Amino acid sequence: MKANALNFSGGPGALPESVLEQTRQAIEELPETGLSVLGMSHRSDWFRAILQEAENNLRALLGLSDDFAVTFLQGGSSLQFAMIPMNFATAVHARPEYVTSGYWSAKATAEAARVTACREAWNGRAGGFRQLPDLRALDIDRTAAYLHYVSNETVEGLQFPLFDEPPAVPLIADMSSDFLSRPLNPDAYSMIYAHAQKNLGPAGVTVAIIKRELLERVPDGLPVILDLRTHVEHGSNYNTPPVFAIYVLTLITRWLRDEIGGLAAMQAINARKATRLYQTLDALEGAVSLHADRPWRSQMNVAFGFGDPRLDAAFLAAAHERDMSGLEGHRSLGGLRASLYNAVSEQAVERLSEALTDFARHRA
Amino acid sequence: MKANALNFSGGPGALPESVLEQTRQAIEELPETGLSVLGMSHRSDWFRAILQEAENNLRALLGLSDDFAVTFLQGGSSLQFAMIPMNFATAVHARPEYVTSGYWSAKATAEAARVTACREAWNGRAGGFRQLPDLRALDIDRTAAYLHYVSNETVEGLQFPLFDEPPAVPLIADMSSDFLSRPLNPDAYSMIYAHAQKNLGPAGVTVAIIKRELLERVPDGLPVILDLRTHVEHGSNYNTPPVFAIYVLTLITRWLRDEIGGLAAMQAINARKATRLYQTLDALEGAVSLHADRPWRSQMNVAFGFGDPRLDAAFLAAAHERDMSGLEGHRSLGGLRASLYNAVSEQAVERLSEALTDFARHRA
């Protein structure tokens, strides 16, 4: 297998080979325009059609009704951590609730606290961020502006189960690391957002799906660029958008629809990949330890280790010899991490499982 | 000539052919890593080296001392329009001064006015945005937080002359559409910023060059992501940066250094291009009119027209037949516009001049 196909990075990470091939061609010359994608104006008819297709494909994949606006932003989830309380924690709808369940949600909570008074509905730090709460059982103030959580903790490898029923307050989910990995019920949410690059396209674009009734709450007087209504009203073309990243995102939505067959099919593949890797790691129990407790194991990010930094480093070297990359743990946690995003194939996970078993047999 | 080389778009616009060729290769496989550039982690040694090289190359091209920090941001100039007053208009240093000289600076002034009390030092609307003021002769409050201006008005085709002496208050310049087109004296400025994609790389990255003493004024309590110190202190890697756009930007700085030979050489080429096109248009006086008054004609963007929308449309069609694109005027002004960014060659301008002369002879 090519090295690109054996990239287990937490992100930016692997993209589908067919998308890379089309992108390479588009750098030279787009079939539709005869120009490089890097030279296309964001005001061109071609780019307007790409924006529309990206939105349409996301609507079809996720089953979004017209109750939702779909918009493409810059600045990553980190900018949304500030913009969400600026836009939705108002005089009328105040004190949002935040679930702190790992590295990324802790950042979301801390940034919100700089913008507005908010309340921590749950914090898993005392348990080492190895468990997740049942969102339905949390003691939430029913007058809170919204409840914010991160659906998949990329660093710790924790993933919430799907959420089906609308909760008592508007639910806002950062799905950066499991967006488009499985179907969901959009009507349970008031806002879903996800930055690339995990399953979505090159770093530099963030998708936000926002219930239109939530947008009615945005207070006047925000800087225009930080007002989410600006981007919705201008069809994600208020200022120059990241044209290239949105183009590749569009190719990825085509790949999901045409080559994979939709999110249910994607979920089945992702479930087989995760099952294969967790079975391998469970079989190595004693030599290998997993960070997440079993009920909350993520299908996207598997944080684990051999319990000794020298062994972890030796495994990274052994994996490197087999063309595998991106297996270092996040700098905040150390150890190892395998990210199984949509573009990582079952064959790649098979290779990784073999490498782990071989290594544990001979070295660990 | 290839169509990519005849792209006169106001941006995103043309990139150098050798940069496109290296980018195409990098999508498949970076020579340094064996992985696609789109799969490279922002925490990889490779990307750290790219960030460092991008900064070093900009420092060398512009002659920046260590008094300046160099950082790479998302959100375009439009986000800086809000962040600059948030960061630098403080209780101690208040009421910044804004020069409104065209479409883009009007946006900067309006956004600043939403963030803080500010003063309009000059407004050229009554003159139809065809002239520019002498910045040195403006009546500026010497206690103002800063003076903000846009060095080149992309829409109207107006360009300020170079500014050599530090003014009475910190000078902040949006150089989005003429950055790296000519040498400058950085010590005249407290902050210079420029978004791609004009001369700089693909849309989605913004360069900010900030005097370190100005950063000492930033008030505490801003959202972390909107505090310019965050991005400086984290070496532009606080959150996932637009890896691909920064990579291409680095290739462009190499091209400027190695193939062009630096900014003085770039300026000489740009001056020849602008002279050739303006001579052509002046020779067609009567048939063609230019938007900008002569002393403020931009070397980067030439806004003009045949004085009749049908003739302008006919010229666009004639240009299209010769593989030229991007010559439509900005939607706010109509007419035609030729952008002569760094990657537009002298040969391309020659072709455009011929097309204009031929058209005027036979149709206008």
TrEMBL record, chains A, B:
<dbReference type="InterPro" id="IPR000192">
    <property type="entry name" value="Aminotrans_V_dom"/>
</dbReference>
<keyword id="KW-0663">Pyridoxal phosphate</keyword>
<comment type="pathway">
    <text>Cofactor biosynthesis; pyridoxine 5'-phosphate biosynthesis; pyridoxine 5'-phosphate from D-erythrose 4-phosphate: step 3/5.</text>
</comment>
<dbReference type="Pfam" id="PF00266">
    <property type="entry name" value="Aminotran_5"/>
</dbReference>
<keyword id="KW-0808">Transferase</keyword>
<feature type="domain" description="Aminotransferase class V">
    <location>
        <begin position="7"/>
        <end position="352"/>
    </location>
</feature>
<feature type="binding site">
    <location>
        <position position="104"/>
    </location>
    <ligand>
        <name>pyridoxal 5'-phosphate</name>
    </ligand>
</feature>
<feature type="binding site">
    <location>
        <position position="154"/>
    </location>
    <ligand>
        <name>pyridoxal 5'-phosphate</name>
    </ligand>
</feature>
<feature type="modified residue" description="N6-(pyridoxal phosphate)lysine">
    <location>
        <position position="198"/>
    </location>
</feature>
<protein>
    <recommendedName>
        <fullName>Phosphoserine aminotransferase</fullName>
        <ecNumber>2.6.1.52</ecNumber>
    </recommendedName>
</protein>
<dbReference type="InterPro" id="IPR022278">
    <property type="entry name" value="Pser_aminoTfrase"/>
</dbReference>
<keyword id="KW-0718">Serine biosynthesis</keyword>
<keyword id="KW-0028">Amino-acid biosynthesis</keyword>
<dbReference type="GO" id="GO:0004648">
    <property type="term" value="F:O-phospho-L-serine:2-oxoglutarate aminotransferase activity"/>
</dbReference>
<dbReference type="InterPro" id="IPR015421">
    <property type="entry name" value="PyrdxlP-dep_Trfase_major"/>
</dbReference>
<feature type="binding site">
    <location>
        <position position="43"/>
    </location>
    <ligand>
        <name>L-glutamate</name>
    </ligand>
</feature>
<comment type="similarity">
    <text>Belongs to the class-V pyridoxal-phosphate-dependent aminotransferase family. SerC subfamily.</text>
</comment>
<keyword id="KW-0664">Pyridoxine biosynthesis</keyword>
<feature type="binding site">
    <location>
        <position position="174"/>
    </location>
    <ligand>
        <name>pyridoxal 5'-phosphate</name>
    </ligand>
</feature>
<comment type="function">
    <text>Catalyzes the reversible conversion of 3-phosphohydroxypyruvate to phosphoserine and of 3-hydroxy-2-oxo-4-phosphonooxybutanoate to phosphohydroxythreonine.</text>
</comment>
<feature type="binding site">
    <location>
        <position position="197"/>
    </location>
    <ligand>
        <name>pyridoxal 5'-phosphate</name>
    </ligand>
</feature>
<keyword id="KW-0032">Aminotransferase</keyword>
<dbReference type="InterPro" id="IPR015424">
    <property type="entry name" value="PyrdxlP-dep_Trfase"/>
</dbReference>
<dbReference type="InterPro" id="IPR015422">
    <property type="entry name" value="PyrdxlP-dep_Trfase_small"/>
</dbReference>
<comment type="subunit">
    <text>Homodimer.</text>
</comment>
<keyword id="KW-0963">Cytoplasm</keyword>
<comment type="pathway">
    <text>Amino-acid biosynthesis; L-serine biosynthesis; L-serine from 3-phospho-D-glycerate: step 2/3.</text>
</comment>
<feature type="binding site">
    <location>
        <begin position="239"/>
        <end position="240"/>
    </location>
    <ligand>
        <name>pyridoxal 5'-phosphate</name>
    </ligand>
</feature>
